[in-house]
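Session log. Operator J.P. requested a structure for one protein chain; no other inputs attached. Running the standard single-chain path with C-alpha cell output.
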Amino acid sequence: MNIALIISTCDYAGLNIQQALFKHAPFNQRKEHFEDKPIHEWQTSLHTVRTYMTDDWCVEAENIDSRIKWPACELIIFPITHRSAEGVPSLTVHTPGNWDKAELGGKPRWLPMTHAPLMKFALQTLKKEASETSHNVTMEATHHGPYVEKPIFFIEIGSSEEQWKDPVMGEIIAKTLIYVLSQPIPECKIAIGIGGPHYMPNFNNIALNTDIAVGHVCPKYNLSHLDREMIQKAMCASNASFVLLDWKGMGQEKERIVALLDELKIKWEKTQKY
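Structure written below.
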C-alpha cells in the first residue's frame, strides 16, 4: 500500500512525531519537493511510506490527497495535535468527517473512506507502547476535516503544548506507526458505531479486545443528523458489514435509528454483547 503521512509545519505534535520517525526508520529524501519542502520516503516490506510537509493547519488542508500529486497514494495519515477542553494527556486515533455542517474543515454531510483494520491495529499498538505512561489511549468519534477523496485517519498527541512537544510522546506515535506499517494488518470484522460519548469507551473496548474494527462513529450529540443517507455513507466509507449500537448512549433516538437499520436490512448488535 502507498501511504502519505501529512505533517503540518505549524503543528508541534506533527513535527515531534516526524523527528522520531526519521530517527527510528530509514526515510530517504526524494528528489522532488512539495510546497518547496522535501519529501521523504521509507520502503517497508509491505508499504511505501512518504512524508509531506504543508503550511496548512491539518483540518484546513483541503484536497491534500490530490495536491501532493501522488496518484498511486492509497491512504492518508495525519500525525497531529489533539486538543480538548479538559486538557487530559491522551493519544488518540479517529476518522475525520462531518455528520452535519462543516464547522471545522471538510464538507457538510461528508464521510471519507477510512481504513478501520489499520486504525484498530494502531490503537492496539498505541495501548502497548503507552503502557508505562498515564496517557489515555482512545478512539474518538468522527469529526472535522479536511476534505479528501482518499482513505484517511488521524493519530494524535493530546492535549496541551507540554505533551505535543514531549519527545517521549513523539516516540510512542512514531514507534506505533513504524510497527503497524511493517507488519501484516490482522484480519477483522468491520462495524460502524452509533451512540455514546465522543471518546466512546464501549467502542474502544471492542476495538482493543475483540476481532472487530470500528470505522466511522456517530456519537450521541450528532444522532439527530443521522438519517438513511448518512448511515449508508458511513457503512460504505468504513467497508462495514454491520452496526454496533451503544444502546444506553442513544437516548430518545433508539427507536428511530433501529427502524432505519431494519428498513435498510443492516445487521446491528448492542455493544454490551461484548
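Operator note: The chain has eight helices and twelve strands.
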